[in-house]
C-alpha cells in the first residue's frame, strides 16, 4: 500500500500559479515518469509530494495516509537531486548514513546498512572519501545510496541524470531500472529528456503549464497523443503538423484543396479548423500528381538506424523518416498517409479528434505498429 | 630587471603604509618599557628597559580581573551576535512568512540608529533590571547586531538550497539542519564575523563607562582611563596597560589570521 494519490493539487508562488489543479494516482511499485518542457512545474510537483513545498490547495496521500501537512522527513519519501546535493563536509559513508543518524539508528547498525547499500552500488572503496573527491557518476550513485538506505516507501528523482554525459546516463538509467526491478519501490522520476522518459517509464505523465496533458504508457502516449501539445512534444523527429479545415464530408483539407489523408473522416462539424498530424515514419512519399503539392527534398540526416529527410513544399515543412538503406525520394514527391496514421487536433485546447464511427476502426495491426515504434 | 622595478613600485607604498600602521604600536610597547625618567625621550628603544610600569599597573588596578571581565564580555557578545545572526538569517532566507521583507528592512534600518539614541533608554532599563556592574548588562543590549544578521543573511542566500532540502528529506528538523549542515559549511563567514564582533566588543568604551561603577567590574578600555589623572597622564603605566589590553586581540589574530583573510577574500562556500 505505497501508492501516491494526488487530488486537486494547486500551488501558487505569490501571484503565479505553477500547478493548476492536478489529479494523479500512482500505483504501488509503479515507475512513473513526469515529462514536460522547462518551467512546466515538474520539480514543483515533485517537491510538493516530498513535502519540501506546501500545497496551496488539494490533498496528498501516500500509502492511503493523508500526508498533506506532514514534515518531509516523515512522509517516507527519499529524493535524488539533479546536482546530487551531497553534504560536502561528510564522507560518503557519512552522507549515506545521515538519515539513519537523524532517525536514531545505533552506530553499528548504521555501518552495516551503509556497507550493504555500498555493496549494491559498488561504492565500497569510496566510503571514506569526500564528495569533492568523486566523479559525477560516483556522486550520483552516492546520492542514490543515501536515498535507498532508509528503505523509503517512495523514491523521487528530479532529473538525476541530466548533469552526466550520454554514456554514463545510459549506464545509470539501466542501474536505476534494475534497482527498481529488484526493490519494487514506487518511483516518480522527473525528466525533460523523452528518451529517458520512454525507456524508463511504466507509465508516463506529460505536463505542460502546470497541468497534465496526458497520462498513459509510453506506447499509448506515442501512438495516440491526446492533445496537440503531446503530439508535438513526444517523438523525435517531431510529428508533422499541417493546419487544415474540415469539409462537408468530414475530411481534413490542407490549404489549397489538398487531402493528404482522404480516407479519414473526422467526427467534427464542417468548417472546423484543425491540425492534422502524421509521424515522419508514417509518411508515404509518391509520384508528383496534380492536386497534390510537390515537396522538394532539402536536407537529409542519417542517424545510423534510420534516415530523416526534411522537405519543403506549398509553404509547409515536412519530415520523413525511413529505415537506413530504404530508398528516399531524390526529386520532388507528393505525400499521403493512411487514416490509421493520421492524428487530428481541434480547437483552442488542441484535443484529439476521433474518426467518425462509420469509418472502419483504427488499425492497430502488427505491420503498422512496427514502423510507428521507431523513434530515437 | 623590469619585473623587479615593478615589484619595487608596488611594494614600496605598501611598506611605507605598513610602517605607518605599525609605528604607533611599536611606540606603545617601547614607552611601556621605559622607566619614569626616560618617558619623554625619543629613542626607538629604551636605554634601560624595565618592567616596572607593568608591575605598577598590576598593583594599581585589578588588571587581571579586568582583562578577564573584558574577555568574558567580548566572547559572550561575539557568540551571542553570531548565534542570533545565524538564527535570524536562517529564518529570513528559509521561511516564507508574511512580513519577512519588512522584518529584514527594519533590521537593516536598526543598523543606522545611532548609539546615542538608545543609550539612555537602555541605561534606564538595565538599571531597573539590576544589571549595573554586571557582565550580563554589558552583553545583553549587544546580543543581536544588525550587521551580523545582514552578513549572515547574505551568506545564507548563496548557500545551496538543495543541501538543506536533502537534510530535510533525511528527516532533520530546522535546528538540526542549522547545526549539522549549515554551520559546518559556513565556517569561514561565521569565524570572521565572530572575530569582528569580538574585537569591536573588546574595544567598547561608552556602554561599559555608563554601566560599570566599580573598578573590579569594569573592562580594559575603562581601566586605561585610570591612568589619566587630574595631575597629568601616567604615560608609562597607561602604555603598559594598553599593551596588556591589546595582547589578547593580537593573539586572536595570530591564531586565526589565515581564516580571517580567507573569509574576507571569499564569502560562502565554493
Ligand atoms: N520558490 C519559487 N518561487 C517562485 N516561483 C517559483 C519557485 N519555484 C519555482 N517557481 C516557478 O515555477 C515554475 C515551475 O518551476 P519548476 O522548477 O517546477 O519547473 P520545471 O518543470 O522543474 O522546469 P525545469 O525542467 O527547468 O527544471 C517556474 O516558472 C518557476 O519560475
Ligand atoms: Mg526542474
UniProtKB/TrEMBL annotation, chain A:
Biased composition (Polar residues): 367-376
Keywords, sorted A to Z: ATP-binding, Nucleotide-binding, Transport
Annotated ABC transporter domain residues: 4-234
Gene Ontology cellular-component terms listed: ATP-binding cassette (ABC) transporter complex, substrate-binding subunit-containing
Chain segments carrying region Disordered: 349-376
InterPro entries per the UniProt record, alphabetical: AAA+_ATPase, ABC_transporter-like_ATP-bd, ABC_transporter-like_CS, ABC_transpr_MalK-like, ABC_transpr_MalK/UgpC-like, Mo/tungstate-bd_C_term_dom, NA-bd_OB-fold, P-loop_NTPase
GO biological processes: carbohydrate transport
GO molecular function ontology, one term from the record: ATP binding
PROSITE patterns for the chain: ABC_TRANSPORTER_1, ABC_TRANSPORTER_2
Record SMART domains: AAA (SM00382)
Stored PANTHER family: MALTODEXTRIN IMPORT ATP-BINDING PROTEIN MSMX, OSMOPROTECTIVE COMPOUNDS UPTAKE ATP-BINDING PROTEIN GGTA
Family per record: Belongs to the ABC transporter superfamily.
Name of the protein this chain belongs to: Sn-glycerol-3-phosphate import ATP-binding protein UgpC
UniProtKB/TrEMBL annotation, chain B:
Keywords noted in UniProt: Cell membrane, Membrane, Transmembrane, Transmembrane helix, Transport
Principal subcellular localisation of the protein: membrane
One GO term describing the cellular component: plasma membrane
CDD domains recorded: TM_PBP2
Domain ABC transmembrane type-1: 67-256
GO biological process, one term: transmembrane transport
Signal peptide positions (record): none
Domain of life of the native organism: Bacteria
Record's keyword annotation contains Transmembrane helix: yes
Residues passing through the membrane, by range: 12-30, 66-93, 105-125, 131-156, 177-202, 235-256
Entry membrane topology: Multi-pass membrane protein
Subcellular locations according to the entry: Cell membrane
InterPro entries, A to Z: MetI-like, MetI-like_sf
PANTHER family linked to this entry: ABC TRANSPORTER PERMEASE PROTEIN MG189-RELATED (PTHR43744:SF12), ABC TRANSPORTER PERMEASE PROTEIN MG189-RELATED-RELATED (PTHR43744)
UniProt family annotation: Belongs to the binding-protein-dependent transport system permease family.
Protein name per the record: ABC transporter permease
Organism: Primorskyibacter flagellatus
